[in-house]
Amino acid sequence: MDFTLTDEQIAIRATSRAFAEEVIKPIAQEIDARSEFPLAVIREMGKLGLLGLPIPEEYGGAGADFLAYCLALEEIARGDAAVAITMEAHTSLGATPFWLFGTEDQKQHYLVPLARGEQLWAFGLTEPGAGSDSGGTQTHAELEGDHWVISGSKMFITNAGTPISGGVTVTAVTGRRSDGHPEITNLIVPQGTPGYVVGPALKKMGWKASDTRPLNFDQCRIPATSILGQRGSGFRQFMRILDAGRVAIAALSVGLAQACLDESLKYARERQQFGRPIGEFQAIQFKLADMAMEIELSRLMYYKAAWLMMRDEPYTQEASMAKLFASETSKRAADQAVQIHGGYGFMDDYPVSRYFRNVKVNEIGEGTSEVQRMLIAKSLLR
Amino acid sequence: MRIVVCMKETPSTEVSKSLGTDQRLVRNPTETIQNPFDEYTIEEGIRQFEQHGGEVIVLTMSPAQTDTAVRRALAMGVDRGVVVSDPALAGSDAVATGRVLAAALTKIGYDMALFGQASADAYGGVVPSIVAEFLGVPLLSFATKLEVAGTTVKIQRQAEVGYTVAEAPLPALVSIAKGINNSPRYPSMKGIVNAKKKPVETWTLADLGIAAGTVGTAAARERVTGSQAVSTQRRREIHVGNEGAAQRILDYLIEQKII
Ligand SMILES: Cc1cc2nc3c(=O)[nH]c(=O)nc-3n(C[C@H](O)[C@H](O)[C@H](O)COP(=O)(O)OP(=O)(O)OC[C@H]3O[C@@H](n4cnc5c(N)ncnc54)[C@H](O)[C@@H]3O)c2cc1C
Questions:
Q1: What is the pTM of this model?
Q2: Which fold, B2-219?
Q3: Closest to A212 (Cα-Cα) out of A106, A364, A60, A351
Q4: Domains and CATH numbers, chain A
């Protein structure tokens, strides 16, 4: 077994770390306080190639491997969660489907500007009435002549309303399958299409600087050719997208947990009580040890899931395990980080209070912890 | 224009440092980074290349256990690398380093060679002038601004008040001061991926026609005979109580001629 990273992976991680430390971290508190989408930083990330890491060079990406992308995401998340989720939702959910399922024309037209980071793209699966039950999509599209006419609404869609959003890929029911189940197809809707209404930015507990919107489709017409892959392959496509997305969310969670540990270590050395640094108390040391251990285990699990994926081996179960364990690790780490900081940890001026708000949603987005446990159990009992 | 950037690998700023029995810094070749001062030099080399075209090459003399620092330069936009590596180079002093770099520069061929202001490990800052001496070409040192026009290179050097302007005909050497403030770029992701496709040549002393006896520990004219930790002692006065505190501080500042 060889855990050695390639020179390329190490260099990508090092650059991402430096960028997060020097460019992202200094603005993290401010963009959170103002719930302000960090456009300038996102643009800079696009120029550096951080928004198209796993996409091949011929389509405007960096042509790095999937693990390198995850390593970069971990480092960016260590700098700021909102910036990291913007990168993750864009890359894993927005750009990757075009690469995996798009026609050559769609790749040239849509994927290239996304991989170059000139535009962001959203993926709209969740609906007001269909969250964990993502197959319960109510949004539907009718073929009228050579156009699809879409009606329905979506909820909690990341990157749908930024100043550089190019559009959204939405799941919609396009008919009935022969077995009676709804036929789901992924439809491509560019920004500005008549009938496509991006709602106001939602106010959130955390990830405040990321863009999350409700969407509405009112007789929204798109060309019949604006579908991803085959008609009816939507469900299979998003299952595949979500598998990889979960590994990425695991990496993002590890970054957040690591940031909690970084701050806790610093504080444990600085803060004096009873005449010595609190890091000399065993009760604090054990918290640090547990945090470090769980972070390392989470990291190993996402490495393994990414490794299986890159070898084209099945990794659905490992992806769920990585996402579940890493997201819960980040929540425990943030909880302990605030505890280690005492009353200061509850104050807005200390980053750990922000981390505490930011980690929670890791257990919800891209499949809740309950859904991950269901998926793991399903594959165990198969 | 062919620009050669001389770069050194220095110990990572994130690891603790210790001295060996020879009183020299213990170097762990797997934990080296680009000499932080050289980031400005590489940036400047790439900028000049972007402006004038031609080719930009990174040159380093190193034990060559890793090529992380060279690859990073390539990822930033440098075209190719040359590494001079030879077991006989161990223990080389600044003169030997200058001899090797001069020979390598001659072999590569250059219009302009750039150096950092010093290396963050030894801080000698003399290598550029030694190389210039070996080559017999002008050195413009500590540039805070650099301009090439035709066959002339012109620099600004920060002075106590204002700056000095110096110029030289090409080929010439220029050492770049950190004060150039040219915001060294991050290597792009595409740059990193493509860096492995760019050529890096490794040369030995024999390739440069340098006799082993003229470099390394044996030839070193410089010997480290001892080292001492720097200790700083602060003068301090402690006054207790608030009574007349402001006046006491004021008196002290006046007494010290600070105000
Ligand atoms: C900030 C943010 C960004 C998001 N970005 C996107 C995006 O870009 N694109 C997108 O499509 N979606 C996005 N989502 C939506 C996200 O994926 C959903 O919120 C998530 O899948 C859960 O769905 P829900 O909120 O409807 O909760 P529900 O499905 O209603 O779940 C409520 C609770 O019931 C539990 N539950 C549900 N079913 C079961 C069951 N069968 N057994 C046991 N427990 C169950 C859940 O685990 C949860 O605890 C985002 C969400 C957030 C908060």
A1: 0.91
A2: Rossmann fold (3.40.50)
A3: A364
A4: 7-120 (1.10.540.10), 122-232 (2.40.110.10), 235-381 (1.20.140.10)
